[in-house]
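Input/output pair, single chain:
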Amino acid sequence: MVAFLVTKHVACIMVLVERGSIVIIASICGVTGGMLPYSFTNKKHTVVGMCREGVAELGWYSVSMNCMSP
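Output:
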């Protein structure tokens, strides 16, 4: 939830200046799944999906978005 709210407000500013970069921290469980409990994996998969959608929407405004999954 925090990642979404921060991204939402920061992206508005970055779209206006037409540049910027957002980095979100997820987990490898968000990509592969099956290693930790379902609730944790579900939350991290949501973060990865939000990042992928953000890239599709914000790329038009030269805003990059990356998701680190340690």
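DSSP finds two helices and two strands in the chain. The chain has one domain: 2-68.
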